[in-house]
Structure formats: C-alpha cells, structure tokens
Amino acid sequence: MAGGGVEDAYGEDRATEEQLVTPWSFSVASGHSLLRDPRHNKGLAFSEAERDAHYLRGLLPPAIVSQEHQEKKIMHNLRQYTVPLQRYIAMMDLQERNERLFYKLLIDNVEELLPVVYTPVVGEACQKYGSIYRRPQGLYISLKDKGKVLEVLKNWPERSIQVIVVTDGERILGLGDLGCQGMGIPVGKLSLYTALGGVRPSACLPITIDVGTNNETLLNDEYYIGLRQRRATGDEYHELLQEFMTAVKQNYGEKVLVQFEDFANHNAFDLLAKYSKSHLVFNDDIQGTASVVLAGLLAALKVIGGGLVDQTYLFLGAGEAGTGIAELIALEMSKHTDLPVDDCRKKIWLVDSKGLLVESRKESLQHFKKPFAHEHEELKTLLEAVQSIKPTVLIGTSGVGKTFTQEVIEAMASFNEKPVIFSLSNPTSHSECTAEEAYTWSKGTAVFASGSPFDPVEYEGKTYVPGQSNNAYVFPGFGLGVVISGAIRVHDDMLLAASEALAEQVTQENFDKGLIFPPFTNIRKISANIAAKVAAKAYDLGLASRLPRPDDLVKYAESCMYTPLYRSYR
Ligand SMILES: O=C([O-])CC(=O)C(=O)O
Ligand SMILES: [Mg+2]
C-alpha cells in the first residue's frame, strides 16, 4: 500500500521499489482452457456461434443443451447415489468444473442439496477430507508460512474479496478437532454465502489456518493433509493469527468481512473480543447461531404466547453457541423492557459438563460463563436442573448427542403445555435428541427445532414438520447486508435486526404446520430482507460507508445478488 491508500499491485511506485510483486497476467480464455475454467465453462451449453468464436469446434460433441437440461441430468445422477458422501464428492466435482451450474443446482434445489454440501454430510467429508481430496479449495495458511502470510494471500487469484470464512479446525461442528481437514467448513459456508445470500463466488475466500492438530487418529492417518504436529498454542498461535488479521486488512482493506468459524471456545471468544475493535469480524458460532435462535424464539412466542421476558431458559452446553444465544436473548429482552441486561440474564440458566452454573462455582468458571452463574444450590445433571428450574425453553448446544433423554423431555412436557425444545448440536449424530423423540416423548406438544435437518414425523395420525434452527438462515443475508452497505464494523444491534427480519418471514401457513422457521426454499427472498434490515441498521449506526444510502434497501440487496444463469460470450 502506498500513495493515497490505493494498492500498488503492479509495482509502479517508488515507495514499493523494494517490495516483491506477483506478475499476474490475465488473458481471454478460449479452446481447451475455456472448458477447463470452472468460472466460464458451460459444458454442452455453448452455442454454435460461441463454439466458432472460441475455438471449441471438435472439443465438444455436437449436441447443444440448455442449462435447465444440464440441471435435470445432474439432479437425476445425484439421486442415483445412495452413499451421501458420493453426492458430496459429485457436488464438489461440479463446483470445480462448472461453477454456475453448481450454484444453479444449489439455488433451485436448496432443501435437497443443503444437507449434502452442508450439515450433516460436510461433517463426514471433513473427517475423510484427506482420502477424498482431489484439488485444493481455498487457501491454506500454516505455521510454515509465518512471516509470509501476506505473500500467501497474494497467491490467491482473486483481488476483490468481500467475505472470508476462516477456521483453525479445532472444533468442527460437534465433531471436535479435525485440523487442516476442517477446510470443508469454510468452503461449504461460502457456497451458502453465494447460493443463499447472493455474494459473488469470486468475492468469497475460504481459509484454513493450520497450527497442527491434537487428533491422534488424524496424526496417524496416512492420508492426512495437514501439519503432522500437535497444536501450537499461546504466543505462537496468537502471533500467526495477528499476522493473518493484519495481512487481510493490508491486502483487502477495511471492508472485508472475516467470519470466524468452528474455533474452539478458548480461542473463539478471545479472537472475537480482540479483533472486533479493529476489524470487520463476525463469529458465526457465537453470533450467527444466536441471531437464528433468537429469531426462532420470537416466532415460537406466537405459538406458545407471552413475551421473551416471560420465559425461563435452560441451556445444556455453555460454550460459544450457548452463551452467545443467552447473551443475545438478554440483550433483546432488555431492549424491549426497562430491565438492565444483567437482570435479564437471571432468567437464563446454563448447564455445562460439570452441572448447573451457580454462584458457588463462579471462581472456577471461564469468563464467558460467569454472567450466568446465579444463586442456586449445586446440581450435577440436566434432569435435576430441568426439575428444579422448570424452564419453558430448553436449548441444547453441548455438541453431545442423545443428552435430551426421555425423562428430560417428559419432564419438560409435564409442566409446559407447549415446551420449546431446540437440539442444536451438529451434525445429526450429535443432536441432543431426534425430532421423533421430541414429538413422541412430549406427546406431540413440543415446539421443536434442530441444528441439522430432520424429516417430518408422523405421530398419532398427525404430521409434525421440525424447523432447522441453523445459522445458515442468517449469515448469508447478514453478510450481504454488511457488504452492500460497506459496513466497517459489526454491532450487536445488527444481529438483533437480522433476528427480527428472519422472525418476520415466518408466515401463518408455516405456523399452521408447526414451523417456527420459514422453509429454505424462499431463502434468497429471506436473505434480501435480512440484508436490508442489517444494512439499514449499519446506516443508522453510522457504520456504513457506501453512500448515498439507497432508498429501497430490499430492492438494492436483490439487485446486488449473484445470479447463476449462463452469460453469452461475444
Ligand atoms: O455448520 C453448521 O451446521 C452450524 C454451525 O456453525 C456449527 O455447528 O458449528
Ligand atoms: Mg460452525
């Protein structure tokens, strides 16, 4: 960066004489290289004129087919695979071969394909990432790159990046430390940024920071793709992250959104607190999950009656998701009453692996748990806590499956007419209970949602459709709102705006089916509304830099959204 703050990409200024430059050169793709370029390849959809103009004659069979026809064929092929991981691999192959077709499939068949490119199948893909690895996706930054992170960023072929999703792989979904193989998560999240939120694929950058792994199975796996060493911690870890965050701002400027994803608790809270002052950062597991769950609760209130402040909340799991949700509920409650946030926190109870968070345990608790340690006798188990606290809302964020047992759910149903039960841990195998268990054990009274998808359940002749309370409802639209307003910081009020926007999108028809989240089928419209509300809040708070403020933010958001339709080539 030199004169005027504009990057000297070609090395033209005196001030950058000593610096290394990357000799990027771009030319028009044609012939074989056009077919190999996923961003421009259209497969058999190239017209006769395009085949002439771009030296494609003979490189393709004679048939010319439409994008719709290609879509039909690939959906048919995908449905032949019985092993979910095969579908994942087929989708990744498509993304690397024909990007527009990949996104057209994902957008048009979102309910069917979300579980393939996202939770639960992406979890298995990360576990086996080394074995299924074909071509690199995203950018790998490891301890070996210390001192050279800026150079690594400059190797990425795109210059205009708007959203980065970064992980260090230490807590992938509820699956734990998957090291470098966590790359599947930033890749998957960003494909949703594009498909669900409309952020351009070329503006998205998936990054995995490899500081080693403590996963013995991976360290001994002959196909592991990461550094074979135990995790660096302390100064060594923080220096690499500091170098990374600095390089991101140097290379892409102030307005690139950095989404932290699937970091372990001990780093997630600290990184968010540290960098939210100087960078445009967002932690999806803390803030994105919180925003979606709050939206689900606001919608659930229409079913169970009463306000947020009239509920009693109990969480199993006091990590990023649990405390993130709890804080956002307290904040929203406080905004709509005269109560100080600290009083609102008193309505919220959390259970961690050692039992209920209570005053007498406060000294030994991690800082993010302390605000929720209230006066109460010590209780060791969830069941005891449920029986004693008598919550109206039970939320699972523990990462441990099968923990909402029959006794727990029956207890919830014994003192609530309509118990609200969210089992949020991912993937499906780690869900606190299944949809079927929630409906059966509560005798059909539960208002239920889960982090990973479950099919509708038949119970005593009635069909119950569970909602998917997953941060995928919010981060794509939230990111779009940040990007289109040119916001330079994330503020909690922008998260509340996203929750309210999402809750407003639940229709009477959805409620009639027992749904407290709208179906993903309409997600692009939902994202445009979320983006507009988030952008409006950024303007109101003076955080937006894109001026003048557009009059109709929904329309503006829609006009900014990526479309996967093939373009014609001259
Ligand atoms: O990826 C998902 O499905 C939701 C999420 O952020 C997590 O579980 O860490
Ligand atoms: Mg996550």
TrEMBL record:
A Gene Ontology biological process term: malate metabolic process
Domain Malic enzyme NAD-binding: 286-539
Cited Pfam families: malic, Malic_M
Involved pathway(s): Photosynthesis; C4 acid pathway
Keyword Membrane in annotation: no
Details of cofactor binding: Divalent metal cations. Prefers magnesium or manganese.
Cofactor list: Mn(2+); Mg(2+)
Malic enzyme N-terminal domain segment(s): 95-276
Keywords: Metal-binding, NADP, Oxidoreductase
Gene3D superfamilies listed in its UniProt record: Malic enzyme, N-terminal domain, NAD(P)-binding Rossmann-like Domain
Binding-site residues, (S)-malate: 171, 426, 470
GO cellular component: chloroplast
Domain of life: Eukaryota
UniProt-recorded Gene Ontology molecular function terms: malate dehydrogenase (decarboxylating) (NADP+) activity; metal ion binding; NAD binding
Active site: 118, 189
Matching SMART domains: malic (SM01274), Malic_M (SM00919)
Listed InterPro entries: Aminoacid_DH-like_N_sf, Malic_enzyme_CS, Malic_N_dom, Malic_N_dom_sf, Malic_NAD-bd, Malic_OxRdtase, NAD(P)-bd_dom_sf
Reaction(s) this enzyme catalyzes, per UniProt: oxaloacetate + H(+) = pyruvate + CO2
Residues reported to bind a divalent metal cation: 261-262, 285
Subunit structure: Homotetramer.
UniProt family annotation: Belongs to the malic enzymes family.
Protein name, entry field: Malic enzyme
Organism: Hordeum vulgare subsp. vulgare (Domesticated barley)
